[in-house]
Protein backbone atom coordinates (compact mmCIF):
# COMPACT_ATOMS: atom_id res chain seq x y z
CA UNK A 1 0.00 0.00 0.00
CA UNK A 2 1.35 3.37 -0.92
CA UNK A 3 1.90 5.92 1.75
CA UNK A 4 -0.21 9.02 1.70
CA UNK A 5 1.69 11.92 3.20
CA UNK A 6 -0.20 15.12 3.78
CA UNK A 7 1.31 17.61 1.42
CA UNK A 8 0.38 21.24 1.51
CA UNK A 9 2.10 22.88 -1.31
CA UNK A 10 4.51 25.67 -1.71
CA UNK A 11 6.67 27.60 -3.69
CA UNK A 12 8.24 27.51 -6.50
CA UNK A 13 9.16 28.03 -10.03
CA UNK A 14 11.78 30.39 -10.81
CA UNK A 15 13.03 32.79 -8.21
CA UNK A 16 12.82 35.93 -10.30
CA UNK A 17 15.18 37.91 -8.12
CA UNK A 18 18.20 35.63 -8.37
CA UNK A 19 20.44 34.30 -11.12
CA UNK A 20 21.38 30.65 -10.84
CA UNK A 21 24.55 29.60 -12.62
CA UNK A 22 24.29 26.17 -14.21
CA UNK A 23 26.89 23.60 -13.29
CA UNK A 24 29.25 22.16 -15.85
CA UNK A 25 28.65 18.41 -16.00
CA UNK A 26 32.19 17.36 -16.74
CA UNK A 27 35.52 19.07 -17.19
CA UNK A 28 36.48 22.64 -16.35
CA UNK A 29 35.64 24.71 -13.30
CA UNK A 30 32.40 23.55 -11.66
CA UNK A 31 31.84 27.06 -10.36
CA UNK A 32 29.92 28.60 -7.48
CA UNK A 33 26.42 27.27 -6.92
CA UNK A 34 23.46 28.05 -4.69
CA UNK A 35 22.49 25.77 -1.82
CA UNK A 36 18.93 26.21 -0.57
CA UNK A 37 18.39 26.23 3.17
CA UNK A 38 15.43 26.90 5.46
CA UNK A 39 15.18 30.05 7.56
CA UNK A 40 15.29 29.45 11.32
CA UNK A 41 11.53 30.06 11.62
CA UNK A 42 10.85 27.32 9.07
CA UNK A 43 8.76 29.62 6.87
CA UNK A 44 10.81 30.17 3.72
CA UNK A 45 13.97 29.28 1.84
CA UNK A 46 17.30 31.06 1.87
CA UNK A 47 20.35 30.57 -0.34
CA UNK A 48 24.05 30.35 0.34
CA UNK A 49 26.90 30.36 -2.17
CA UNK A 50 28.78 27.09 -2.47
CA UNK A 51 31.97 26.28 -4.38
CA UNK A 52 31.45 22.93 -6.06
CA UNK A 53 34.55 20.75 -6.25
CA UNK A 54 33.38 17.70 -8.21
CA UNK A 55 33.71 17.77 -12.00
CA UNK A 56 31.59 14.76 -12.98
CA UNK A 57 27.80 14.56 -12.63
CA UNK A 58 27.73 11.69 -10.11
CA UNK A 59 30.24 13.48 -7.93
CA UNK A 60 28.27 16.72 -8.12
CA UNK A 61 25.05 14.98 -7.05
CA UNK A 62 26.72 13.42 -4.02
CA UNK A 63 28.48 16.64 -3.09
CA UNK A 64 25.33 18.78 -3.25
CA UNK A 65 23.33 16.23 -1.24
CA UNK A 66 26.03 16.33 1.43
CA UNK A 67 26.01 20.14 1.41
CA UNK A 68 22.22 20.18 1.83
CA UNK A 69 22.59 18.18 5.05
CA UNK A 70 25.02 20.66 6.57
CA UNK A 71 23.99 23.88 8.28
CA UNK A 72 25.20 27.10 6.60
CA UNK A 73 27.72 29.36 8.29
CA UNK A 74 25.42 32.38 8.40
CA UNK A 75 23.42 31.37 11.48
CA UNK A 76 20.24 32.72 9.87
CA UNK A 77 19.31 29.42 8.23
CA UNK A 78 19.32 25.69 8.92
CA UNK A 79 19.55 22.55 6.82
CA UNK A 80 16.28 21.50 5.20
CA UNK A 81 17.07 17.83 5.89
CA UNK A 82 16.69 16.35 9.39
CA UNK A 83 19.69 14.43 10.71
CA UNK A 84 17.99 11.04 10.48
CA UNK A 85 16.90 11.55 6.87
CA UNK A 86 19.15 9.75 4.41
CA UNK A 87 19.25 9.35 0.66
CA UNK A 88 19.58 5.58 0.31
CA UNK A 89 20.40 5.74 -3.37
CA UNK A 90 20.16 7.92 -6.43
CA UNK A 91 19.80 7.03 -10.09
CA UNK A 92 20.24 9.29 -13.11
CA UNK A 93 18.65 8.22 -16.38
CA UNK A 94 18.55 10.55 -19.37
CA UNK A 95 18.40 13.72 -17.31
CA UNK A 96 15.86 12.32 -14.83
CA UNK A 97 17.20 11.90 -11.28
CA UNK A 98 15.47 9.56 -8.81
CA UNK A 99 16.28 9.99 -5.11
CA UNK A 100 15.27 7.15 -2.78
CA UNK A 101 14.96 8.15 0.90
CA UNK A 102 14.75 6.11 4.09
CA UNK A 103 11.52 5.94 6.12
CA UNK A 104 12.49 9.03 8.14
CA UNK A 105 10.91 10.95 5.25
CA UNK A 106 7.46 9.80 6.38
CA UNK A 107 7.78 11.83 9.59
CA UNK A 108 8.26 15.09 7.68
CA UNK A 109 4.89 16.66 6.93
CA UNK A 110 3.17 19.92 6.10
CA UNK A 111 5.11 23.07 5.21
CA UNK A 112 8.48 21.67 6.26
CA UNK A 113 8.14 18.76 3.84
CA UNK A 114 7.26 20.98 0.91
CA UNK A 115 10.02 23.48 1.65
CA UNK A 116 12.51 20.64 1.98
CA UNK A 117 11.41 19.10 -1.31
CA UNK A 118 11.62 22.47 -3.02
CA UNK A 119 15.12 23.13 -1.66
CA UNK A 120 16.48 19.75 -2.73
CA UNK A 121 14.99 19.97 -6.22
CA UNK A 122 16.13 23.56 -6.80
CA UNK A 123 19.64 22.76 -5.65
CA UNK A 124 20.04 19.66 -7.81
CA UNK A 125 18.51 21.20 -10.94
CA UNK A 126 21.58 23.42 -11.15
CA UNK A 127 23.50 20.41 -12.45
CA UNK A 128 23.37 20.73 -16.21
CA UNK A 129 22.70 17.03 -16.83
CA UNK A 130 19.60 17.03 -14.60
CA UNK A 131 16.25 18.24 -15.93
CA UNK A 132 13.84 16.64 -13.42
CA UNK A 133 13.85 14.96 -10.01
CA UNK A 134 11.58 12.29 -8.51
CA UNK A 135 11.41 11.27 -4.83
CA UNK A 136 10.71 7.76 -3.58
CA UNK A 137 10.70 6.35 -0.04
CA UNK A 138 12.11 2.83 0.24
CA UNK A 139 11.33 2.38 -3.43
CA UNK A 140 7.70 3.54 -3.19
CA UNK A 141 6.44 6.60 -5.04
CA UNK A 142 5.91 9.77 -3.02
CA UNK A 143 2.23 10.73 -3.00
CA UNK A 144 -0.03 13.65 -2.19
CA UNK A 145 -2.74 13.49 0.45
CA UNK A 146 -5.23 12.26 -2.15
CA UNK A 147 -2.99 9.34 -3.06
CA UNK A 148 -1.86 10.72 -6.40
CA UNK A 149 1.81 10.36 -7.22
CA UNK A 150 3.86 13.54 -7.08
CA UNK A 151 6.08 12.29 -9.87
CA UNK A 152 8.85 14.19 -11.61
CA UNK A 153 9.57 17.73 -10.40
CA UNK A 154 11.33 20.33 -12.55
CA UNK A 155 11.84 24.08 -12.82
CA UNK A 156 8.11 24.58 -13.46
CA UNK A 157 6.91 22.57 -10.46
CA UNK A 158 7.35 25.26 -7.85
CA UNK A 159 6.50 28.96 -8.07
CA UNK A 160 8.09 31.12 -5.40
CA UNK A 161 7.74 34.88 -5.28
CA UNK A 162 9.00 35.21 -1.72
CA UNK A 163 7.25 35.78 1.56
CA UNK A 164 6.45 33.47 4.45
CA UNK A 165 4.52 30.42 3.43
CA UNK A 166 3.89 28.41 6.59
CA UNK A 167 0.11 28.68 6.44
CA UNK A 168 -0.25 29.42 2.74
CA UNK A 169 0.87 26.41 0.75
CA UNK A 170 -1.30 25.36 -2.16
CA UNK A 171 -1.29 22.58 -4.73
CA UNK A 172 -3.63 23.22 -7.62
CA UNK A 173 -4.25 21.88 -11.09
CA UNK A 174 -4.53 24.61 -13.71
CA UNK A 175 -5.91 24.22 -17.22
CA UNK A 176 -3.90 26.26 -19.70
CA UNK A 177 -4.45 26.85 -23.40
CA UNK A 178 -1.42 27.23 -25.63
CA UNK A 179 -1.16 27.78 -29.38
CA UNK A 180 -0.77 24.79 -31.67
CA UNK A 181 2.50 24.71 -33.59
CA UNK A 182 0.79 25.97 -36.74
CA UNK A 183 -0.77 28.82 -34.75
CA UNK A 184 -4.32 28.08 -35.91
CA UNK A 185 -5.83 26.31 -32.90
CA UNK A 186 -5.50 25.80 -29.15
CA UNK A 187 -3.94 22.94 -27.21
CA UNK A 188 -5.32 22.29 -23.73
CA UNK A 189 -2.73 21.39 -21.10
CA UNK A 190 -3.31 20.54 -17.43
CA UNK A 191 -0.53 21.62 -15.11
CA UNK A 192 -0.20 20.78 -11.41
CA UNK A 193 1.60 23.65 -9.71
CA UNK A 194 2.85 24.22 -6.16
CA UNK A 195 2.74 27.84 -5.08
CA UNK A 196 2.23 30.30 -2.23
CA UNK A 197 -1.38 31.38 -1.82
CA UNK A 198 -0.32 35.02 -1.57
CA UNK A 199 0.12 34.79 -5.36
CA UNK A 200 -3.21 35.22 -7.14
CA UNK A 201 -4.23 32.30 -9.41
CA UNK A 202 -4.86 34.67 -12.32
CA UNK A 203 -1.32 36.03 -12.09
CA UNK A 204 0.04 32.51 -11.96
CA UNK A 205 -1.93 31.57 -15.09
CA UNK A 206 -0.44 34.47 -17.03
CA UNK A 207 3.09 33.75 -15.81
CA UNK A 208 2.82 30.18 -17.08
CA UNK A 209 1.21 31.14 -20.39
CA UNK A 210 4.32 33.22 -21.06
CA UNK A 211 6.54 30.15 -20.64
CA UNK A 212 6.88 27.10 -22.85
CA UNK A 213 4.24 24.37 -22.55
CA UNK A 214 5.14 20.81 -21.61
CA UNK A 215 3.65 19.28 -24.75
CA UNK A 216 5.72 19.18 -27.93
CA UNK A 217 2.65 20.01 -30.01
CA UNK A 218 2.19 23.52 -28.62
CA UNK A 219 3.94 26.86 -28.20
CA UNK A 220 3.38 29.94 -26.08
CA UNK A 221 1.32 32.51 -28.01
CA UNK A 222 2.67 35.45 -26.01
CA UNK A 223 5.98 37.15 -26.94
CA UNK A 224 8.81 36.49 -24.48
CA UNK A 225 9.36 40.23 -24.01
CA UNK A 226 5.78 40.84 -22.82
CA UNK A 227 5.44 42.21 -19.30
CA UNK A 228 2.44 41.66 -17.07
CA UNK A 229 1.76 45.14 -15.68
CA UNK A 230 -1.31 44.35 -13.62
CA UNK A 231 -4.10 41.82 -13.24
CA UNK A 232 -7.14 41.79 -10.96
CA UNK A 233 -10.63 40.33 -10.78
CA UNK A 234 -13.83 42.19 -9.92
CA UNK A 235 -17.32 40.64 -10.06
CA UNK A 236 -16.28 37.92 -12.44
CA UNK A 237 -14.38 40.17 -14.83
CA UNK A 238 -10.60 39.79 -15.10
CA UNK A 239 -8.86 43.06 -15.96
CA UNK A 240 -5.56 42.28 -17.64
CA UNK A 241 -2.96 44.97 -18.36
CA UNK A 242 0.03 44.07 -20.54
CA UNK A 243 2.80 46.20 -21.99
CA UNK A 244 3.15 47.08 -25.68
CA UNK A 245 5.33 44.05 -26.44
CA UNK A 246 2.18 41.93 -26.44
CA UNK A 247 1.24 43.56 -29.74
CA UNK A 248 4.34 42.02 -31.34
CA UNK A 249 2.96 38.48 -31.26
CA UNK A 250 4.15 36.59 -34.31
CA UNK A 251 1.86 36.61 -37.34
CA UNK A 252 2.27 32.83 -37.51
CA UNK A 253 -0.18 32.62 -34.60
CA UNK A 254 -3.66 33.84 -35.45
CA UNK A 255 -5.17 36.79 -33.61
CA UNK A 256 -7.98 34.64 -32.23
CA UNK A 257 -5.58 32.01 -30.92
CA UNK A 258 -3.53 34.63 -29.08
CA UNK A 259 -6.60 36.20 -27.47
CA UNK A 260 -8.43 33.01 -26.58
CA UNK A 261 -5.34 31.33 -25.23
CA UNK A 262 -5.47 34.00 -22.54
CA UNK A 263 -9.25 34.19 -22.19
CA UNK A 264 -9.86 30.45 -22.01
CA UNK A 265 -7.02 29.91 -19.52
CA UNK A 266 -8.20 32.67 -17.19
CA UNK A 267 -11.86 31.66 -17.46
CA UNK A 268 -10.99 28.15 -16.27
CA UNK A 269 -10.71 29.80 -12.85
CA UNK A 270 -14.08 29.67 -11.09
CA UNK A 271 -13.99 33.33 -10.16
CA UNK A 272 -13.56 34.56 -13.77
CA UNK A 273 -16.26 34.57 -16.45
CA UNK A 274 -14.87 37.20 -18.86
CA UNK A 275 -11.62 39.05 -19.61
CA UNK A 276 -10.81 42.61 -20.63
CA UNK A 277 -7.36 43.26 -22.10
CA UNK A 278 -5.58 46.61 -21.86
CA UNK A 279 -2.20 47.64 -23.27
CA UNK A 280 -0.29 50.05 -21.03
CA UNK A 281 -3.62 50.84 -19.38
CA UNK A 282 -5.41 51.64 -22.66
CA UNK A 283 -8.55 49.62 -23.38
CA UNK A 284 -8.79 50.62 -27.06
CA UNK A 285 -5.39 49.48 -28.29
CA UNK A 286 -5.27 48.01 -31.80
CA UNK A 287 -4.20 44.38 -32.12
CA UNK A 288 -4.01 42.99 -35.65
CA UNK A 289 -6.44 45.63 -36.89
CA UNK A 290 -9.06 45.21 -34.16
CA UNK A 291 -9.61 47.20 -30.97
CA UNK A 292 -9.11 45.34 -27.71
CA UNK A 293 -12.25 46.96 -26.34
CA UNK A 294 -14.43 43.91 -25.89
CA UNK A 295 -15.09 41.88 -22.81
CA UNK A 296 -14.06 38.43 -24.02
CA UNK A 297 -15.75 35.19 -22.97
CA UNK A 298 -14.33 31.69 -23.58
CA UNK A 299 -14.31 30.03 -26.99
CA UNK A 300 -13.55 26.35 -26.60
CA UNK A 301 -14.37 25.56 -30.24
CA UNK A 302 -10.78 26.44 -31.07
CA UNK A 303 -9.40 23.58 -28.97
CA UNK A 304 -8.20 20.73 -31.18
CA UNK A 305 -6.10 18.63 -28.83
CA UNK A 306 -5.42 17.93 -25.18
CA UNK A 307 -2.16 17.35 -23.35
CA UNK A 308 -2.65 15.80 -19.92
UniProtKB/TrEMBL annotation:
Signal peptide: 1-25
Coiled-coil residues: none
Domain GerMN: 61-146, 202-288
Keyword vocabulary terms for this entry: Signal
The protein's name: GerMN domain-containing protein
Keyword Signal applies: yes
UniProt-listed Pfam families: Germane (PF10646)
